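ok so I'm stuck.
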Amino acid sequence: MLEQMTKPENLMAATWTQAALVRRAFNAGPKRKSDRKFDDLEEAVLAAYSSFLDLRKEMLGAGLSSKDVRAALVLMTAIYDGPPINAGALSLLTVPDTIKELPELLRTVERRAKNGDMAPLGVAFWQRDRDPAAKAEKAVWVQSWLVGDRATRAVVGAREAFRDSDGRETDGQFEEK
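replied:
not stuck anymore, here's the structure
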C-alpha cells in the first residue's frame, strides 16, 4: 500500500513561466523566525548586494536576462512611536549592478541611518517576466531581515512602493491599507 503512495504532483508548476520558476527557487526556504542582526551598515549593504547577485545568477541559469531584475535595500524608521497601523518611514535605495558602485550606496545608507533614524529592513526585488503567458508582466517581493507586526507592515509598504515606482528608489510614509 505504501509503495503505491507517491508524492502529489504540483499541477500548477506546469503553468509557471521561467521567471516564475526563478522567483519560486529564489524564495524557497522557511520563513524567518528571528531578526537578522548586522554589526554595521556595510554588512547590510553587502548582504543586499549578495542577494541581488544570487537572483541575477538564477535568472541567467534559467536563460533569462539579468537586466530584467532590480533590487533595493529597504530601510525603515528605527524607532517609531506613531499610530500602530503605520510602519513609519521607509527608504528604498537601489542596489547597483556593479561592485564599484557599492561605496556610494553605503554613503547614502549611512546618511539616512545617521543618528539611528533608519535601520535595514531587508531587500526588495523587482522582476520583469517577458513570457507572453505570464499572469503579470512584473513581480515585486521583499525578503525581510526583521520579524514582527511592524516589520510585516513595513514589508507590505515597501513592496507596494517598489511596485509603484517600477523598481526605482523611493521614500515615504506608508500606512497599512
